[in-house]
Write a structure and sequence with these properties.
A hairpin with a 6-residue loop joins strand 4 and strand 5 (46-51). The chain is mainly beta and 112 residues long. It has no helices and 11 strands.
Amino acid sequence: QVQLVESGGGLVQPGGSLRLSCVASGIRFSISAMSWYRQCPGKQREFVAAITPGGTTTYADSVKGRFTISRDNAKNTLYLQMNSLKPEDTAVYYCRVPPDSWGQGTQVTVSS
């Protein structure tokens, strides 16, 4: 049974930073492509970033240069380092593993 548990969300001021974590179990993490998505209030869930088993990364244009996705295969953990946060980054952030397993999400609120 696949389980993904996100943590690290919270309230941060504009310009601040947060690091999200996603601990995975029930999968062969080291050979799994992993990704982060987010859902803003009243909007559809959208892609944020992805990382392949080999470490190749892709980002949504809206977060490129500010967010960094990484993984620690020894800890079965996916990370999202978020810098220079903006109010429009406010959302529930989810990690995902194919074909279609999701965590419960962690709330990120960027506000002064």
